[in-house]
Amino acid sequence: MVLGGIFGGSSTTTPQYLTGDKTAIDAFIDQFDTFLFDCDGADRRRRIGVLWSGDHKFPGTAETIDMLRSRGKQLVFVTNNSTKSRADYKKKFDGMGISAEEEEVFGSSYSAAIYIARILALPPPKNKVYVLGESGVEQELQSENISYCGGTDPLLRREMMPIDFESVASGELLDDDVGIVLTGLDFHPSYLKIALGMAYLRRGAKFLATNTDSTLPSAGSLFPGAGAISAPLVAASGQTPLALGKPSQAMMDAIEGKFKFDRKRACMVGDRLNTDIQFGIEGDLGGTLCVLTGVSKKEEFLVKDAKVVPSAYVDTLSDLLGESKAKAEAST
Amino acid sequence: MVLGGIFGGSSTTTPQYLTGDKTAIDAFIDQFDTFLFDCDGADRRRRIGVLWSGDHKFPGTAETIDMLRSRGKQLVFVTNNSTKSRADYKKKFDGMGISAEEEEVFGSSYSAAIYIARILALPPPKNKVYVLGESGVEQELQSENISYCGGTDPLLRREMMPIDFESVASGELLDDDVGIVLTGLDFHPSYLKIALGMAYLRRGAKFLATNTDSTLPSAGSLFPGAGAISAPLVAASGQTPLALGKPSQAMMDAIEGKFKFDRKRACMVGDRLNTDIQFGIEGDLGGTLCVLTGVSKKEEFLVKDAKVVPSAYVDTLSDLLGESKAKAEAST
């Protein structure tokens, strides 16, 4: 098989099917110094994802990662999951037996923290963040020494009382230092928390979101995602948040700022066309690789006029090992 | 002053200023057999509204209502507030000393109940309603003998547990009879409640909203309205609810169905151009009257190219009494 030479993300190129073609695989891998990986498959039941799905690791994942390391590749694990910190992810990788360093993980909460601390860089003390989200957001803000309120504060997980309308309106319940409202996936929404977020936005706070994924795949079904948590504030305030997760290029800029890689020698690996692959194409990376163990099906990008087309695709990540499928499956 | 004859809701007509012009007022009132009134001003502090604002009654309100009754007018009190039932409103009118019957009140929850029972009329038992809202919605569903779940059920005001993802996905936590999801203003949102609503929508339930007001005026500020409660479901499901409150004409149809009035001999009285006045114009009523004790200012409809223009306007509702302003104010 003759390689096309340049693995551009252009939607006019026919994507290359790498599974079972050792020569093509080696040439593909050699094109890149850096691989950005989507991680998640939160969905245990349907077992969809790239590296794992829930507690299920796809066969050959650890070996594939080790192979790329042995060939000197820089690896970055990119996730939109805002509820987990990089430290949480390190534990997940360890539990899965996949080699990874905390510093190689880049989540949407960390992306938001980096953006707030290094790019937005509001002058203190008016740079406090009001959080609608879980501890993953809080941990990453702490890691960048950003002060915050809201989040997992149990005092806000309560009923809105009539007096609260007065206290929010008067500003008594507000922290004067808040200059940013940051939403992520929050499993504990309350009217009081939404009302406080709206009050801060009405005072001129910047509106950010770790990501705005509309859905969260879980248990073989779809649940409300981070986009459903920011939605009440969008409706009530008329404002739209800047999203710091895939496919927002604000996240790509932050990743590049931290890892200093050559975009033309980098490849995004993922299972979702409209987040992962689009993220790589819009970021003008040298290539994109779609893994078919996930959400998107090859029929979606092999059709004529497909909107988002990867440079290449494989049935499963471990196909990059170049072993026969039977052998790869037998080894785990 | 010579009257223009027809008080159409057309935006090309210059609205007539009635305050202080007894002849014009009498002629205006004589044009109509039916008056539809907006009621609410939830905002105690800023005292904005038509009949009242919070616990503050505008001077002369009761007398104006009595005057219209003495002239044989049919009165309907129309409100988008979904948290209160007609019975709740009757108590409010009584407390304010304003004469009104429960049957004259038409709220967005009642509008939704009427729509579900008489227009949508899904075949039982698959016509149960899953409610995201407060007791006002439940009471009105009961009044039309519609079965429901969700709503104020304290068992749903709890944390989403990991097992809940499985139970929602498997359908174990779902009621098989639910065919409709109805959202109103809910002061007790929870991830579990939103996840259940999403699951019902994914099963094909109809999506309705009592109203989709983005904000709730209160305590001199703005808080998240019913539109902020439906927003997570809109984001997560990609579906948009049919709204049964102002300015949706589904509400006007329901009002007409119940009260059997002649639209050309009916006038909508309200303080908001983009809800009340638009509701009357789109409903092709004979006239609309804007009361300036509320949200909208006359500058908004007196400018050239104004989008929504009432037939007439008064400074305050009691100006319809035709008394001098000083006298009206002294009388309360």
UniProtKB/TrEMBL annotation, chains A, B:
Instruction: Tell me the GO molecular function terms.
Output: alkaline phosphatase activity; metal ion binding; phosphoglycolate phosphatase activity
Task: Say which species the protein is native to.
Answer: Cryoendolithus antarcticus
**Protein name from the UniProt record:** 4-nitrophenylphosphatase
The active site of this protein is located at D38 (nucleophile), D40 (proton donor)
Q: Which InterPro entries match?
A: HAD-like_sf, HAD-SF_hydro_IIA, HAD_sf, PGP_euk
Q: Which cofactor does it need?
A: Mg(2+)
The signal peptide here is none
Quote the EC number: 3.1.3.41
Q: Give the cofactor note text.
A: Divalent metal ions. Mg(2+) is the most effective.
Q: Where does Mg(2+) bind?
A: D38, D40, D271
Which annotated residues bind substrate?
A: K246
Q: Which Pfam families match?
A: Hydrolase_6, Hydrolase_like
Catalytic activity annotation: 4-nitrophenyl phosphate + H2O = 4-nitrophenol + phosphate + H(+)
Q: What class of enzyme is it?
A: hydrolase
- Please provide, in alphabetical order, the Gene Ontology terms of the cellular component aspect for this entry: cytoplasm
Keyword list, A-Z = Hydrolase, Magnesium, Metal-binding
